[in-house]
Amino acid sequence: MARPKEFDVDVALMNAMVLFWEKGYENTSLQDLVSRMGVHKRSMYDTFGDKRTLFLRALNRYADLTEAADRERVAEAGNALEALRVLFESSVEQSDARPSGCLVVNSATEVALRDPEATARVERNFAEQQRLLKEIVERGQRDGDIDRCHDAGVLATTLFNALLGLRVQARVVTDRALLARMVEGVLAAVR
């Protein structure tokens, strides 16, 4: 008879996700993981598999959570410009409660080039972000908030690249006013 888990699997996975977000895949040791997750090494392996498998599960969890949160933010926005603002501001948000930057962007530059499964997850997240941005642009063009002179697909791709850049900047720039000016610059370009 299997023994019941002595830890909450979801909490342990969330703790691993935050640790990978903070330190990256390569800089996160097995000892770091078991300490942060509050599990024994054997339990970690039995529940999550090896470090790579745990990382992929954490990356999937992060992408699923952020995609859902972004969709919710956009749905609650009053118009397209407000939707863009909340997306861009949330991407540079800094707090003690979570690491800065973006685990998907970090993973794209750290592990995706040599791990096909990580690459696939990063690509799915990037495609979802671009789809969401295109929907926002099309909504803004229908409502008159975004100039129709822009091709919606091209503008969405441009906004996506700006969003990625801001997520990288958020990892290293601590000047909140500078990050806010960057967001304003992006939003000014679509009006």
Which short descriptors sum up this protein?
single chain, 191 residues, mainly alpha, 9 helices
Explain how this protein is built.
There is one protein chain. α4 runs antiparallel to α5 (80-92), α5 packs antiparallel against α7 and α6 crosses α7. The mean pLDDT is 92. The chain has 191 residues and is mainly alpha-helical. It has 9 helices and no strands.
State the gist of this model.
By secondary structure, the chain is mainly alpha-helical. The chain contains nine helices and no strands.
Main sheet characteristics: none
Q: On the 0-100 scale, what is the average pLDDT?
A: 92
Query: What is the helix content?
Result: over 70%
Distance between the termini: 64 Å
How many H/I helical runs? 9
Q: Write down the secondary-structure element order.
A: HHHHHHHHH
Low-confidence stretches: none
Kindly provide the radius of gyration, computed on alpha-carbon positions and rounded to a whole number of angstroms: 19 Å
Strand content: under 5%
Give the class from helix and strand content and strand pairing: mainly alpha
Principal-axes geometry comes out as elongated
Count all strands and give the number.
Answer: 0
